[in-house]
Amino acid sequence: MNVQIKTKASRPMCASGALQKIYANVSNVDEVVTDRFLCSGEDMSLEAHTCKGESGGSLFVERRQRHFQVGVISWGTYDPCARHNKNDDGEVIRDRPSKESKPRDFYISLFQVQDWLRKYLDNSLTFIPMQ
């Protein structure tokens, strides 16, 4: 899956997408999208959105022909697999979101929870610099 993480000036608009549907009664986006989340969204490609049940999946970035895990999918505002359509091979067909839906996916940033990971998993993890 090829996603674009919204950073800097584009992050607040991406995060505000969380106030659609499932969090429509929340007035402050910071209540549901903390600094621990990475945000992606508004990409209309079929592969850019995660399905319900894919929570816990890894988000990687590629730098200098190396892949680094930077996040873990937590939740999204659109489920492209909700209709459970399958192709002839039994693979789930992802539905393309409408332009009005402005879907978002939210990932836990491993950079934001690194202290916790080190505290509880230090003996089983190796951290490599992303340079």
TrEMBL record:
Pfam short name (any one): Trypsin
Localization, UniProt: Secreted
GO biological process terms on file: complement activation, classical pathway; innate immune response; proteolysis; response to bacterium
Species of provenance: Thamnophis sirtalis
Keyword Protease: yes
GO-annotated cellular components: extracellular exosome
Domain Peptidase S1: from-to ranges: 10-122
InterPro entries assigned: Peptidase_S1_PA, Peptidase_S1_PA_chymotrypsin, Trypsin_dom
Protein name listed in UniProt: Complement C2-like
Alphabetically ordered keywords of this record: Complement pathway, Glycoprotein, Hydrolase, Immunity, Innate immunity, Protease, Repeat, Secreted, Serine protease, Sushi
Lineage: Eukaryota, Metazoa, Chordata, Craniata, Vertebrata
Record-level Gene Ontology MF annotations: serine-type endopeptidase activity
